[in-house]
Design goal:
- By secondary structure, the chain is of the alpha/beta class.
- About 35% of the residues lie in helices and about 20% in strands.
- It folds into 2 domains: about 200 residues, Rossmann fold; about 70 residues, no CATH class.
- The strands form 2 sheets. A 6-stranded mixed β-sheet has the order 6-7-8-3-9-10, with helices on both faces. Strands 2-1-4-5 form a 4-stranded antiparallel β-sheet, with helices on one face.
- Strand 7, helix 5 and strand 8 form a beta-alpha-beta unit.
- About 40% of the residues are buried.
- Bound molecules: adenosine-5'-triphosphate.
- Adenosine-5'-triphosphate (ATP) binds next to helix 1.
């Protein structure tokens, strides 16, 4: 099983893609005299990559995502996105959290249009509406766009959040357990939609998940964090399955069970051992 922190390019690529995100030697401590939550975290994300971050509760996954979003500052190290250091939130990054965070008094269309307007303040009303409609249709909500959040199911609300994030055409899409609150069937449907959209638009994504099968379906690479405090990025594993994977078929792909066992074994065993022996 690949386990190479220096070579972060996924398998199945012939030319080296452009580095979009560079995280260097990053660490976070929330209070003086408290332990570092995580430290020495370094990785690259290439243009068009879908990268998932997995680790046990409290190892600092959301903190890392919040630093990439510019919502938190790192204690050590930093993040460069497209040549610029991240110091604050920006429209070059779209964020989807577990809670949908939609504006409750606006319809789905108005919620997405609001984000499009923020990105393109000079665009005509017609252009903004067209774009918002396009992204809602992309997530299968063409017929529900005039509904307000309380009139939508949890899965539909999360789709609006995804449409809103895509509508600003971010360089980097950040997702913090976006499907954690959804039932398994809805989650599966949205996961496949997301993978299709990301492949079509070559969207670069950094996503946190607790779900190993979700990571296998979506991620080109899986980053594995050891347990905190002082958590480390222990492994950077390329997904051996081709991008054309689907939930239905991926179990039959060669390498599926080896990859899955590798990830599960990390979570149940190696994540706790990394502190004492980083070679495990
Ligand atoms: N704003 C904050 N102020 C102080 N401590 C914080 C803050 N945010 C996170 N922490 C602490 O940092 C540690 C890591 O939290 P974080 O949410 O990043 O972990 P996580 O891996 O995403 O956890 P989970 O999987 O449970 O969501 C925790 O001990 C948490 O209490």
């Amino acid at each position: 099983m690949p386990n190479d922190l220096s070579a972060s390019a996924p398998l199945h690529r012939t030319t080296e893609p452009r580095v979009l995100v560079r995280v260097s030697d990053m660490g976070k401590q929330y209070r003086q005299n408290s332990p570092m939550v995580f430290e020495n975290v370094s990785f690259d994300i290439h243009q068009g990559d879908f990268v998932c971050l997995i680790g046990h509760s409290g190892c600092g996954k959301s903190s890392i995502l919040n630093i990439l979003a510019g919502l938190e500052q790192p204690t050590t190290g930093g993040v460069i996105i497209d040549g610029r250091e991240v110091t604050r939130p920006g429209l070059d990054r779209g964020v989807v959290f577990q809670g949908h965070a939609l504006l409750p008094w606006m319809t789905a269309l108005q919620n997405v249009a609001f984000a499009v307007r923020a990105r393109e303040p000079a665009a005509s009303r017609h252009a903004v509406r067209e774009k918002a409609e396009h992204y809602l249709a992309m997530v299968g909500l063409a017929k529900a766009m005039h509904k307000k959040p309380f009139e939508l199911s949890g899965g539909m609300r999360q789709r609006v959040g995804i449409a809103r994030a895509f509508s600003t055409q971010p360089r980097l899409l950040l997702m913090d357990e976006p499907f954690g609150a959804l039932d398994a069937l809805t989650r599966g449907l949205i996961q496949e939609e997301l993978l299709r959209i990301c492949t079509e638009t070559r969207q670069t994504v950094f996503m946190i998940t607790h779900d190993v099968d979700e990571a296998i379906l979506l991620a080109d690479r899986v980053l594995l964090m050891s347990n905190g405090p002082s958590a480390k990025l222990a492994e950077d594993v390329a997904n051996p399955l081709p991008r054309s994977r689907t939930r239905e078929r991926m179990h039959h792909e060669s390498g599926f069970y080896e990859f899955r066992n590798h990830l599960v074994d990390f979570l149940v065993r190696r994540s706790a051992l990394v502190q004492s022996d980083p070679n495990l």
